[in-house]
Here is the input.
Amino acid sequence: MNVSENEVNSWFAYRGRDVIPKGVTQPKLTIIGNGRVMGVATIDLDSMSRERASGKTLDMWSLVGGQVPISVTGVLQTKGGRGQFDLQGASLGGIPVPKALLQELVSYYSRSADHPAGVRIDTPFELPAKIQQIEVGEGQAVVVQ
Here is the structure.
């Protein structure tokens, strides 16, 4: 089944609200091609900052907050019902951020009863809905079940 970039983004806007974490809004996926994808969203740093702040003078989490755009680019590789995302770069508010900071953000926003510590960026994962493979082309993806 072919899925266009517009279809994915329409799903995020109209049907994905129940699976998008609280504090994450306006998600958009750009399907670059050759496995490369870029995701952009706005995240609310206020709740995370309150939870993570230590109260010390130079604590980074006491210095950040508000609604901030985040962008992540990488390569999605899938085979045999499993996927792996290889991070190529990330920015927060247009400023490049290291993988460690991105991992903290992903862990925080992906926490659930099944994954209380959240998910790891570089850990392989099971594809949903009996999907066996996703071939990422330019502007579209081919989903094989």
Summary: The chain has three helices and nine strands. The chain has one domain: 2-144. Strands lie at 2-4, 24-33, 36-44, 67-79, 82-92, 95-96, 125-126, 133-136, 140-144. Residues 2-144 form one domain.
